[in-house]
Every structure is written in C-alpha cells, then in structure tokens.
Amino acid sequence: MGTRSIGVVQPQQVSLPLTEKGLLLESGATLPAVTVQYETYGRLSPTGDNAILVLHAFSGDAHAAGRHAEEDRYPGWWDDMIGPGKAFDTDRFFVVCSNVLGGCQGTTGPGSINPATGRHYALDFPVVTIGDMVDVQKRLLDILGIDRLYAVAGGSMGGMQALEWAVRYPQMVERAIVLASTSRLNSQGIAFNAVGRNAIMSDPAWNNGEYYGAPQPGHGLAIARMVGHITYLSSESMRQKFGRRLQNGRPGNLAFDDQFEVESYLAYQGEKFVDRFDANSYIYLTKAMDYYDLAGSWGGMEAAMRRVEGSLLVLSYSSDWLFPTEQSKEIVYALARAGKDVSFNEIQSPYGHDSFLLEASLQSELITAFLTGKKR
C-alpha cells in the first residue's frame, strides 16, 4: 500500500436542480432549495465505471482526503485510506465525498438561510433521515454524470448510509463497504445521543435553537462532544492513553478543577468541536441516527436484503462497544439468508469505535482485496 498524498484539494458546492415543490423529505416536509458541498479525488473514467462514494460519520464532512492548503496541519479525515496506491486508490478510482443534508460544513442544514424568511432555519429546518441524506447524494451524482457506483463505503453513520444505498438504489451499487455500523441503533446508542441533545438544549445560550448571530451554546455542545467522544474509545485505549495519570505528574490541591490527563483531554476535544460544528446540526444528525431502522423501513431485514444486488463487505472491531460486532453480524446473517454475496471480518483492535478511522493498515488489506477481486 502506497503512502502518497493526493495533495491540495478544493471543496466544491452545487445547488440541486429542484422543481417549484422543492425537495420532498421522508417526513413529508419539503426544502425549497438545497446546496451540497463535496470534494472529489482522482478522475472519472470515460465510461464512468470507476466512481466510489465515500460517506462520512456523524462529526465528519466532505473533506475526506488531501489538504485545502499546503500549510494545513491536518489532512482530510480518511487521508490514510484515500489517495494514490491506498485502499481507495485515486490512480484507479474517482472518489466522491459530500457533506450530509442537515450538516454544517457547506450542505444545507439548520444553520442555512431559509429562502422563505431570509433568516436561519434553526428549528424550522425539517427533520431529516438517513434516507434523505442518501437521496441528496443520489441527486449530486446525477449532476456529476454518475449513474453507477463501483462502490459505496462508510463507517458509523456513514455505514448506515452505505447500507441504505445498497437497499434503496440497488441497481446503482456494485459493492458496499460497511464499517463499524448497524442497521439500527440499540437503546444504549439512542441514550447517549439523548444525553448530548439535552446538554445542548439545557445551555441558556441555545435559546430554542435561535442563537445565530450570537454565541452558540458552546458549553452544552462541548459536554455533548465529551460524552460522545467517550463512546468512540474503549476502556483499553483509555487505559493505554491516560491511565490515572495526573497532568503535572503529582496531585495538586484537592479541588474540583481538571487534574487528570483524561479530564483535560476531553475538555480539549469539546472546545475543539465547538469551533467547527453547529449545535443544531448535532441535534438533527443524532436524531437521524436514532430514527434509522432498515428493517422497519423495508418490511423486515430479509426483505430489505433481498433488494441488494451488489456485494457487501462488513467490518466490525473487537473493542467497539458502541456498535458492537453482534450488530454487524445481524447485517451479515440477513444478507446470507437472502442469498447475497457478503464478506465479514472482525478486526482485532484496542481503539474502540474509532478503529475504522485509525486501523488503516489492517482494514486496507481487506478493502483492497474486496475492491480489486472479481465478483461472483
């Protein structure tokens, strides 16, 4: 596997062509206008048969690889996986990644301007679903002239989208890669999302979502991120990274300020998140995850999987307690019962749910084999 970077990339935006009725959502509500931010890597082949759609997780965005400027300190969120000679080899594939509907990184969401009022949508933005996100991605691909996907791939919330793609648009999807994901959240996952939303809504600055033009509810959003970040790690990874180490190597005065390394780390993660994410998008996207239920939407798991026409690769991670291996196996078993082509592997990793972002070497071998192997 090569380690070359794709270099500097530029985000792009496009307004979806809509009728006067706008974009109809699964809730029955409509959006009069939708803008999508996306990035592309590599080149689309003359026959259009090499496109891969990469789908980001909850807190991700369209910037999956490369850097926006040479001096950028950090590359895109999956830079270890996308580029020349990497698992998603841009010498061979044309990779597309877009910010999801309801997000806050360039695609229409609650922080966007409502054309009907000239004000930010805030809570007037309609509830969106994983299916709505996929439908918007489909419209983006139509604009790009892509009518068939060599593969779709995503982890966590991105895995939900990849699974939905394989079921909703089966004739378009030749392969789907689902990492650290599920066909529906369990009550524990819903509970953690509820805690995050309540932290935001309890912040006085939230003002029922009407905080645009003023400081956003940073304290509540930071707490939500701290809680969420704990779920992305594992007990072992936290032990290895922090243990019970104190910031200065020795106890200070017995007090309530942050003295353990893990405390300061979580505080830093919360502060950093506030700088780049919108609190209302946090509420909308976690609700979209909560509502996602593949079996409930398609008349049962086997009925849903019978719609699939492509091959699937499902990867889980041994220490992921947020989306544990048993949830991945539910997907695999349903596909197998439906007679579909499915491969599965549980990767041994200490990094918890974040493993799909960190275990580039281990998962690259599996993904490369899946992408380059012949279909049955």
Written overview of the protein:
With 376 residues, the chain is an alpha/beta fold. The chain folds into 2 domains: 12-185 and 294-372, Rossmann fold (3-Layer(aba) Sandwich); 190-285, Rna Polymerase Sigma Factor, Chain: A. The protein contains 12 helices and 14 strands. The protein has helices spanning 130-144, 157-168, 187-201, 218-232, 235-241, 261-274, 279-291, 294-298, 301-305, 325-337, 355-358, 360-372, and strands spanning 12-15, 23-24, 30-31, 35-41, 51-55, 82-83, 88-89, 94-98, 113-114, 119-120, 151-155, 175-179, 311-317, 342-347. The strands form 4 sheets. Strands 1-4-8-5-11-12-13-14 form an 8-stranded mixed beta sheet, sandwiched between helices. Strands 2-3 form a two-stranded antiparallel ribbon. Strand 11, helix 2 (157-168) and strand 12 form a beta-alpha-beta unit. The longest helix has 15 residues, at 130-144. It is globular and about 65 Å long. The chain starts with 11 loop residues before the first strand and ends with a helix.
